[in-house]
Write a structure and sequence with these properties.
Elements lengths: L6 H14 L17 H14 L6 H4 L4 H23 L5 H14 L13
Helix pairs in contact: 1-4, 2-4
Length: 120
Amino acid sequence: MRFRMRRKLFLCILNDVKAYDDYFVQKKDVTGRLGLSSIQKITTAVRILTYGCAANHYDEYIKMGESTAIKCLKAFCNAIIVVYAEEYMRPPNETDITRLLEEGEQIGFLYMLGSIDCMH
């Protein structure tokens, strides 16, 4: 199984995260060599979250050490929480529930919110 994310969504998240935390902006080290790119750092974090792979798995795939992969994951999660918490990490309100139920009905998931406690 392969996880796929729309490019537009990925780039939107990348830009938002870079704007919040300059850790994700590609920089040169003291010798003048470019470090890891924003795409490499965020891809690593998303892949760890998606697949649950060990952080040292990315040493061969993206040429990133385990400690750097862990740092990317932590920085990414912190940025996502700060940037998106207010809009996406809140309990659904009545408008959200109505919209989700209508969308679910259109695509054949009539009881898609049946297990969420907010329906009471």
